[in-house]
Amino acid sequence: MKLLFDQNLSPHLVTKLSKLFVGSKHVGDVGLAKASDSQVWEFARQNQFIVISKDSDFSDYIEMFGSPPKLIWIRKENCSTILIESILRENVSDIKLFEQDKDRGILVLF
């Protein structure tokens, strides 16, 4: 399962979670550090990534266009990279189920 970490998340998460989410990238790793949300969305769609973000704009994309790509939306304000890593580790089973569920386009994690 490949996650594409949005600009608002630390690029260090890719390394920290590399064994759980093989092939994941940060937008900065793929030349999208300053890209618009629509460019990130299109890259994720074309390259079979699940977008992971704290940005509510991506949930609007799900509403308008559906998926793919899918979205994991982290709904924690002002939290550390360590906390986000912990949230993802604690929810790895749910994330894997979400990836396989053809009817769900968004997973919200708190």
User: How much is the average pLDDT?
Assistant: 96
What helical percentage do the residues reach? 25-40%
Largest sheet: number of strands, sense, barrel closure: 5 strands, parallel
The number of helical segments is: 5
Spatial extent as radius of gyration: 12 Å
Estimated share of beta-strand residues:
15-25%
Counted up, domains total 1
What key phrases describe this protein's structure?
110 residues; single chain; 5-stranded parallel beta sheet; alpha/beta
Architecture overview:
Strands 2-1-3-4-5 form a five-stranded parallel beta sheet, sandwiched between helices. With 110 residues, the protein is an alpha/beta fold. The chain has one domain (3-109). The chain has five helices and five strands. The longest helix has 10 residues, at 37-46. It has helices at residues 12-16, 37-46, 57-65, 81-90, 92-100; strands spanning 3-5, 25-26, 50-53, 71-74, 106-109. The mean pLDDT is 96.
